[in-house]
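== Sequence entry ==
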Amino acid sequence: MQIWDTAGTSRYNTITPNYYRKIDGILLVFDVCNRKSFEMVNYWIKEISETTDISKIDLLLVGNKIDLDETREVTADNARKVAEEIGIVYV
């Protein structure tokens, strides 16, 4: 198994499509305390879809830092709704 953490930074934008071609699954991780990281989920889905048939891979939307309730900006219900619209599971 190989795990690539691109941290959503633009410096990896030119190489990430090469890795999408031979994947079995993707964990899309966002920070529940950072709305902007959550809003990037649709960007990543679009990018992945341009290179890979997402119906043939396992996708999982993961909310990170859920222990930080006092600074949470994305609710679990909101994340579940977006995941459902995309057709993937949210944890």
